[in-house]
């Protein structure tokens, strides 16, 4: 699959990883979910996308790789507009890790699952093997390559799910609720992995401490628009703002009192 | 169809039979069973030889006899059917232990029992020496339509997931004091089946999204392929070829 | 009812295999048309569902239980093409991994349990939903009848194959009454569960029930004081309109029915005394009744409840007549439909390799 429509390499490096402007979308049944979202994520940034249920987070995510088509407005990934003619390249650049790893890991073995993306893009042979091994090493799962996914623990499955998109060398990694259903140890392991990656991250989550731990910057999506965009710590401290968007910190958690690991 | 987990049938072990390419084994087993089915039932000794052949394969594959026999339970309903035949088939009657039974019925029972048992035993040998994944690759190599292979592959991948969901629903039902005793509980079970269908279908849609997100456009990339050389084919062919020789003898003798 | 090796002779097994291959090939094309690139994951998950549901045991009375065959359920929920694919895959994997059903009898099993149940159930279901008012209740009722008819129909198909190629001469009339009789009873269970399950899905996600797509009234627009149908707007790319694919489906079904019938009459004329012999052997009922191995697991698998042959014979007669009526109406309906839309463009062939 040739990336025929890619813009020149130098222009690309200057462009931010993700550029959403004026994005509005209504489902065919008439229900409007997005009302003009503007969001720019720079190269290498890690941003948390916060918001109450029904704010349109999932709808937004499905626009990033063109599964949903914008009603109005545009989405650009590293300068390349999300449009029908670019879909193959866009889907290579945007790696979405879905919430349930069982949905994401659909091949009979871990190795084949990680190979699925690059193989769909036309990679074969030793080059493919090398790519698979590298992605599995990045998440520390290289020993499990030959296993069927349903023999892994939930945390391991989520790590493999991350590897499946890393294998495609994405420009931006989009994670949907990455910490859900993880025990504290798996949660920390995943955080270590995400911090070690040299890739732009957009993390959709309800888990505010996790957002604080991993993402220096956070945005709040509420009622179909970006309602706030600031340093994560400052956002979480603003109790008024948090309450008005139905976001609540866990009992006893003080965002001002934690040391943020260096980004 | 007994207890769910398909992979429990597989017995891991390094053996020449395990090492054979899956498509060779599939073809060999199929031809073997076909030959068995074509053997005249009067040649009783032939079926004995077939059984000996399978026993030899089991020995080479290091599959314990007990394991094999346990799996044969699958055919119990047909044993019952076969046992009934001597009593319902019309024809010349004879006396066995003081009970009047029909001769063609006895032959029919013997025919079904012998052939079905050998068929089941051959399948069990195949299943216990070949991994699920390998069988799929073998089917793919045998030119089963790719879409069918994909469906089978998804079914195997999600069989456990769906069965687990079903089990969790059963536990939830029982925790709330439900016990399936008779016809009156059908409505509850059917509601669970309906919910299970919706969950399965919606998961199918989500899986499709996940596939599309990774560049799926309708065809699966071929990541693994199995190949077999002439020696392996020859090795796998031993079983059906010997069986064919026995069968031909059975027809001529 | 999985048929093992050695039950049906080789020529008929091969013929049934060829028929099954044809049916699966046609279904592959049909499913592609209905589900496009979503076929593999959706059909795979539905196959997993059928596999799971077949393991779900429904208690019938103290001690005994039955399980769903699922043909009717699959046909109604996901449409005939996908249903045939799902059941074929389930049967294939059961044959290989569970030795459940012989490998050489795979064609027989797919034909009897996959194709026949699905075709019969879907035709009956569409027919009834077409005749009855478009409500949820009538959809559920139609599901009941469709499943009820599909199980004995599959038993009848098995009897037919056994008649042509059975390895042991059991009087065919007896096999027929016993098989169909027992399966009418099994069919009632299947029907109740199928109807309740379809009802449960209809209550939550009516859009997922393939057999009754568009049960919701179409939106109306008021233009110049008159109500006009609004253009349908759905979220997914609209699958081929149901009646169009259904028409092709019926034609295929009818053609294969005729082929089968032709095949059968050929054999029947070669063996003319098959049916006559039945009459001579009525004395056997009592013997079997004494022998009393009648209930037990066997009941699920056919020639069990022979003591009830007369009762089941009666039931079988009723079913047979209704099946004839249903098929007759079906032919009439298809013909009428064809006349109603004469100038329709030939269906675009998809280039996908099946």
Automatic annotation (TrEMBL), chain A:
Where is it predominantly found?
membrane
Q: What's an example GO cellular component term for this entry?
A: ATP-binding cassette (ABC) transporter complex
Q: What GO terms in the biological process aspect are recorded for it? A: cobalt ion transport
Cellular localization per UniProt:
Cell membrane
What keywords tag this UniProt record?
ATP-binding, Cell membrane, Membrane, Nucleotide-binding, Translocase, Transport
Pfam families, alphabetically? ABC_tran (PF00005)
Q: Where is the ABC transporter domain?
A: 18-248
Q: Which PROSITE patterns does its entry note?
A: ABC_TRANSPORTER_1, ABC_TRANSPORTER_2
Q: Does the keyword Membrane apply?
A: yes
Show the InterPro entries listed in the entry: AAA+_ATPase, ABC_transporter-like_ATP-bd, ABC_transporter-like_CS, ABC_transpr_CbiO/EcfA_su, Co_trans_ATP-bd, ECF_ABC_transporter_ATP-bd, P-loop_NTPase
UniProt cross-references to Gene3D superfamilies, sorted A to Z: P-loop containing nucleotide triphosphate hydrolases
This protein's record includes keyword Membrane: yes
Q: Which GO terms describe its molecular function?
A: ATP binding; ATP hydrolysis activity; ATPase-coupled transmembrane transporter activity
Q: How does it sit in the membrane?
A: Peripheral membrane protein
Report the PANTHER family cross-referenced here.
ENERGY-COUPLING FACTOR TRANSPORTER ATP-BINDING PROTEIN ECFA1 (PTHR43553:SF24), HEAVY METAL TRANSPORTER (PTHR43553)
Role, per record: Part of an ABC transporter complex. Responsible for energy coupling to the transport system.
Which family is it part of?
A: Belongs to the ABC transporter superfamily.
Output this protein's name: ABC transporter ATP-binding protein
UniProtKB/TrEMBL annotation, chain B:
Record keywords, A-Z: Cell membrane, Membrane, Transmembrane, Transmembrane helix
Its domain of life? Answer: Bacteria
Bilayer-spanning residue ranges? 43-65, 72-89, 109-127, 233-251
Q: Where in the cell is it found?
A: Cell membrane
Q: Which InterPro entries match?
A: ABC/ECF_trnsptr_transmembrane, ECF_CbiQ, ECF_transporter_component
Question: How does the protein's chain sit in the membrane according to the entry?
Answer: Multi-pass membrane protein
GO biological processes: cobalt ion transport
The entry's cellular-component GO terms read:
ATP-binding cassette (ABC) transporter complex
Offer one Pfam family short name for this entry: CbiQ
**UniProt main location, coarse:** membrane
Protein name in the entry: Cobalt ECF transporter T component CbiQ
UniProtKB/TrEMBL annotation, chain C:
Localisation = Cell membrane
Q: Which InterPro entries match?
A: CbiM/NikMN (IPR002751), PDGLE_dom (IPR025937)
Positions of transmembrane segments: 7-28, 40-60, 72-97, 103-128, 140-164, 176-204, 249-268, 315-335
Keyword Membrane in annotation: yes
Keyword flag Cell membrane:
yes
Which residue ranges does the record assign to the PDGLE domain? 247-337
List the Gene3D superfamilies.
1.10.1760.20
Q: How does it sit in the membrane?
A: Multi-pass membrane protein
Query: Any idea which UniProt keywords this protein has?
Result: Cell membrane, Membrane, Transmembrane, Transmembrane helix, Transport
UniProt-listed GO biological process terms:
transition metal ion transport
Q: What does UniProt give as GO cellular component?
A: plasma membrane
Q: From which domain of life does this come?
A: Bacteria
User: What is the name listed in the Swiss-Prot or TrEMBL entry for this protein?
Assistant: Cobalt ABC transporter permease
């Amino acid at each position: 699959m040739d990336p025929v429509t890619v813009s020149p390499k130098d222009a690309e490096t200057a462009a931010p990883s993700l550029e959403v402007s004026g994005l509005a979308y209504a489902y065919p049944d008439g229900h409007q979910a997005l009302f003009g979202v503007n969001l720019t994520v720079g190269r290498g940034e890690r941003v948390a996308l916060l918001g109450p249920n029904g704010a349109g987070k999932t709808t937004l995510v499905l626009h990033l790789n063109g599964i949903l088509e914008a009603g109005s407005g545009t989405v650009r990934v590293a300068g390349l507009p999300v449009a029908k003619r670019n879909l193959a390249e866009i889907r290579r650049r945007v790696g979405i890790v879905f919430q349930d790893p069982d949905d994401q890991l659909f091949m009979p073995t871990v190795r084949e699952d990680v190979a699925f993306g690059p193989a769909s893009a036309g990679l074969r042979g030793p080059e493919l093997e090398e790519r698979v091994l590298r992605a599995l090493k990045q998440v520390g799962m290289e020993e499990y390559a030959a296993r069927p996914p349903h023999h892994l623990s939930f945390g391991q499955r989520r790590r493999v799910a991350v590897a499946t998109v890393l294998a495609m060398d994405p420009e931006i990694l989009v994670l949907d609720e990455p910490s859900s259903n993880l025990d504290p140890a798996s949660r920390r392991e995943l955080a270590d992995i995400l911090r070690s990656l040299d890739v732009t991250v957009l993390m959709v989550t309800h888990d505010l401490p996790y957002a604080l731990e991993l993402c220096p910057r956070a945005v709040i999506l509420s009622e179909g628009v970006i309602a706030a965009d600031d340093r994560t710590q400052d956002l979480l401290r603003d109790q008024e703002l948090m309450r008005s968007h139905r976001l609540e910190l866990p009992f006893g958690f003080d965002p001002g009192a934690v040391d943020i690991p260096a980004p | 169809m007994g207890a769910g987990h398909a992979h429990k049938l597989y017995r891991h072990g390094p053996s020449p039979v395990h090492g054979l390419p899956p498509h060779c084994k599939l073809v060999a087993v199929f031809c073997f069973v076909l030959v068995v089915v074509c053997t005249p039932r009067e040649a009783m000794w032939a079926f004995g030889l077939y059984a000996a052949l399978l026993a030899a394969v089991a020995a080479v594959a290091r599959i314990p006899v007990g394991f094999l026999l346990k799996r044969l339970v699958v055919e119990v309903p047909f044993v019952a059917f076969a046992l009934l035949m001597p009593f319902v088939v019309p024809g010349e009657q004879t006396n066995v232990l003081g009970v009047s039974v029909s001769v063609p019925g006895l032959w029919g029972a013997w025919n079904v029992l012998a052939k079905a048992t050998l068929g089941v035993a051959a399948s069990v040998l195949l299943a216990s020496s070949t991994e699920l994944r390998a069988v799929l690759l073998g089917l793919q190599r045998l030119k089963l339509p790719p879409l069918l292979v994909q469906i089978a592959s998804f079914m195997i991948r999600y069989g456990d997931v769906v069965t687990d969901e079903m089990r969790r629903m059963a536990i939830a039902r029982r925790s709330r004091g439900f016990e399936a005793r008779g016809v009156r509980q059908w409505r509850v079970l059917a509601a669970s089946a309906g919910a299970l269908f919706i969950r399965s279908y919606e998961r199918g849609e989500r899986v499709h999204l996940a596939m599309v997100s990774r560049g799926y456009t309708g065809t699966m990339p071929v990541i693994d392929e199995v190949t077999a050389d002439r020696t392996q084919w020859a090795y796998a062919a031993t079983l059906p070829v010997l069986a064919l020789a026995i069968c031909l003898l059975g027809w001529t003798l | 009812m999985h048929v093992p090796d050695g039950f049906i002779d080789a020529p008929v097994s091969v013929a049934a295999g060829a028929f099954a291959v044809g049916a699966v090939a046609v279904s592959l094309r049909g499913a592609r048309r209905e589900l496009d690139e979503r076929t593999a994951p959706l059909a795979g998950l539905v196959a997993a569902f059928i596999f799971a549901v077949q393991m779900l045991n429904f208690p019938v009375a103290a001690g005994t239980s039955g399980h769903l065959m699922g043909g009717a359920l699959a046909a109604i929920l996901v449409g005939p093409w996908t249903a045939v694919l799902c059941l074929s895959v389930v049967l294939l994997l059961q044959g290989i991994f569970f030795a459940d059903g012989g490998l050489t009898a795979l064609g027989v099993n797919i034909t009897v349990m996959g194709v026949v149940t699905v075709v019969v159930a879907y035709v009956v279901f569409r027919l009834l939903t077409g005749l009855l008012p478009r409500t949820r209740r009538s959809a559920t009722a139609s599901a009941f009848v469709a499943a009820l008819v599909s199980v004995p129909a599959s038993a009848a198909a098995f009897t037919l194959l056994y008649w042509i190629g059975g390895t042991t001469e059991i009087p065919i009339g007896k096999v027929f009454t016993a098989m169909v009789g027992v399966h009418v009873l099994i069919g009632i269970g299947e029907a109740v569960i199928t109807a309740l399950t379809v009802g449960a899905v209809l209550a939550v996600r009516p859009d997922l029930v393939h057999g009754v797509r568009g049960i919701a009234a179409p939106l109306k627009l008021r233009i110049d004081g008159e109500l006009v149908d609004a253009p349908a707007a759905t979220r997914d790319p609209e699958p081929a309109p149901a009646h169009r694919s259904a028409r092709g489906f019926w034609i295929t079904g009818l053609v294969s029915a005729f082929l089968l019938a032709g095949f059968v009459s050929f054999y029947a004329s070669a063996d003319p005394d098959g049916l006559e012999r039945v009459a001579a052997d009525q004395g056997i009922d009592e013997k079997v009744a004494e022998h009393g191995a009648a209930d037990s697991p066997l009941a699920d698998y056919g020639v069990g409840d022979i003591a009830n042959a007369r009762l089941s014979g009666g039931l079988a007669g009723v079913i047979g007549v209704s099946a004839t009526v249903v098929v007759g109406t079906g032919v009439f309906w298809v013909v009428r439909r064809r006349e109603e839309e004469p100038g329709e463009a030939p269906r675009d062939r998809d280039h996908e390799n099946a």
